[in-house]
Specification:
Length: 194
């Protein structure tokens, strides 16, 4: 993999359904690259825990497994990506999730003379996703809410696969392996990116 440096910053998106390992792999990959992992889900959960105005606005939406509106997410991401540590690259986990968000991301990056280097799609069979998420204890991890998050993924986020494939950015990775093997597959998929 190309090392992250100011001249060859790596800007990566991890795409995949709930429980596919985006958060797990974003941390590992970001650490290896020396760039921040930016998880919009975690940022929103932090806002809910802090009962900030953003948290109060998104609490019920997240608890229902629905998506927070694109405009609110644009504000969250725009601010986070303007931070110093994000200038050397980043691994995005959970954004973009709609075609409108993908357009916003392009606009934010384009405005800064930047672009995405790769979008990694993590594939995991649906039964395994539900088992993994049920093995965790997050507020939005009840079976009904997971089913809803999966339905929302298929309807609103899956179209991004074709969107990024058409742009030559998509890399497919088998997420139904050990955490270490998924990390290795992601590293292999990124050879030559950047
Ligand atoms: P978000 O936090 O992004 O949730 P999600 O996409 O549903 O995904 P998860 O975090 O559940 O799974 P993951 O893919 O990160 O997997 P993980 O590594 O945890 O979003 C939450 C909510 O916020 C959304 O529903 C929405 O309301 C809102 N939101 C966020 N972003 C938004 C946006 N852009 N627009 C609008 N709304 C937004 O792994 C899962 C479990 O499996 C863990 O226990 C882990 O230890 C385990 N595991 C991981 N890898 C493996 C492996 N290889 N083998 C076995 N177990 C594994
Ligand atoms: Mg996550």
């Amino acid at each position: 993999m190309v090392a992250a440096s100011p001249s060859s910053a790596l800007r990566i998106v991890l795409l995949g359904p709930p429980g596919s390992g985006k958060g797990t792999q974003a941390e590992i990959l970001a650490q290896g690259l020396g760039v921040p992992a930016i998880s919009t889900g975690q940022m929103l959960r932090d806002a809910v825990a802090a009962a900030s105005p953003l948290g109060l606005k998104v609490n019920e939406i997240m608890a229902a497994g629905e998506l927070v509106d694109d405009e609110t997410m644009a504000d969250v991401v725009r601010e986070r990506m303007a931070a110093d540590d994000a200038q050397k690259g980043f691994v995005l986990d959970g954004y973009p999730r709609t075609l409108a968000q993908a357009a916003t991301l392009q606009e934010i990056l384009g405005g800064a003379g930047q672009r995405l280097e790769a979008v990694v799609q993590i594939d995991v069979p649906e039964g395994e996703l539900v088992n993994r998420v049920l093995g965790r204890q997050r507020a939005d991890d009840t079976e009904d809410v997971i089913r809803q998050r999966l339905a929302v993924y298929h309807e609103q986020t899956e179209p991004l696969v074709a969107f990024y494939r058409e742009r030559g950015l998509l890399r497919d990775v088998d997420g139904h392996q050990s955490i270490e093997d998924v990390s290795k597959s992601i590293r292999d998929a990124l050879v030559g990116a950047g």
